[in-house]
Amino acid sequence: MSKIQTTIKPKPIAETSPMRGADLVVRCLEREGVELVFAYPGGASMELHQSLTRSKQIRTVLPRHEQGGVFAAEGYARATGKAGVAMATSGPGATNLVTGVADAYLDSIPLVVITGQVPSHMIGKGAFQETDVFGLSVPIVKHSYLILNVEDIPQVIKEAFHIATTGRPGPVWIDIPKSVQQGHCKPVFPEKLNFRGYNADKRISEIAVNEIAGLIEKSERPVIYCGGGIISANASADLIEFAEKTNIPVTTTLMGIGAIPADHKLSMQWLGMHGTVTANYAVDKSDLLLAFGVRFDDRVTGKVSEFAKHGTIVHIDVDPSEINKNKVAHLPIVSDIKYALQQLNKVVKGKPFKAWHTQINEWKAKFPFRYRVNDEVLRSEYVREFLHGKTDEIIMPQYAIELLDELTKGDAIITTGVGQHQMWAAQYFKIKHPRTFLTSAGLGSMGYGYPAALGAKLAFPNKEVVDIDGDGSFVMNIQELGTAHIEHIAAKALVLNNQHLGMVVQWEDKFYNSNRGHTYLGDPEHPHKVYPDFVAISKGFNVPAERVFKKSQLRAAMQRMLDSKEPYVLDVIVPYTEHVLPMIPAGKTVREIIVDADSKPNLGDNLGL
Description:
By secondary structure, this protein is of the alpha/beta class. Helix content is about 35%, strand content about 15%.
């Protein structure tokens, strides 16, 4: 959405005296209910920071890197459903925001990003720290603005929050030249917005509702496949009501985790490359696939032409551009998913689907998420160098996450970095509620986990917030430990440290004959030592930390982390030879799923799939 024309019909609310542009920006943020801004100052944004110091409503949190700030704003937005706000200066400050903005765009997270820009008369002249942010951001935002008149500030900011949070949520970028920040005007604050060509209120028709109800009645093997759209629409309760009324089993995407409790009797947990065998088999065998708030991502579908090819596909999404983009639907519907589920819940009836549930329960019993200490782990340098051969002290990464789930009783907000630990977190921490599993799914941004935990903890200071991270991801934004200490944000980090880029290593093992293409993160001259020393680094930021090598030490150490009233880093040394399983290789089908270390592809053929 690159161009949106607006027609304002406000009941004017005008200030009696002129305001400076920067003060006006802050006043507009206050009027939108903003209480938290993650902002890093610079030459082109200093005016905004001066104004923020005078706000009695907005808390400004200073990240140690702009990327950390925008990831923290994302964490706040994902945990609350409100728009997160990040701010930076021009040039490198703005470009450091790009990864976080792209991340929010792919995962449909509401953000309002504000950057300072060189003075208006210097734009396009190659001024110091000038970057064409408006042009740069177009492919990764829902909308972008360059404000050239101070009088436009109230209108633009109100539009930005409306666009970011309505329909399919997403990031909006506002670029404000320093000259505009320094300008003056008597502001008029619009009360209402009327967008020409922008209709976020899309609703399913009665005909479509009845057609879906009819398809359910005729079905024998239906599956609900739902995603982040359920979370964004705050429609989890409506989804559960629909599933329970119809008695249809549910699987989610990575972004949809929490839409239905992992331990719900109808939950098959999540599907896709590293999802449950049960969910992947069920979708393949289904005769009716109800796709709610999903985009048929390649990590879910594998080979698209083979995905759910035996069933009728109903696809409901608020964004018409997602309909038939990756997978053609037999019944495509553009609608707000919460409204659609509410209408469906008025008319749908349940069926026992006895044979179908019997089959699903058999798969659940036969193929749970599971792990064991295999021969590769027993022979690894990890056991030799760090445990001195004591195999009973091996800490499997999955066990560490299971233990965290046990000690928190599942009542925590979990963030993750990106890699093997991310998949294990999704597999072994049994998420029960929406907005409690915060992960970079679409873009897969390493370094996301800990800054996101800061944002979530600020949103919910009384909730336990733990970043389950890997050493590769954690080090990418480790400077945010400084933010955590100075701002008194007691977010915890459980680092599963295998000294490698674990997911890339797994692919090297599976597809490149274990040839290591620069995936070792340790010190090759001292392989018996852990490098870098996260404990020393953490203590340099005045953040308490400890390292654990042995399984017998882990429970007490993890409890100390959870009991801490400060930010805390627990560095857990785990073997790098462990793989995330099950796994459907990229571009392959459920028939080629690898269930465990000893299984062969095409297992599905032996099961009559």
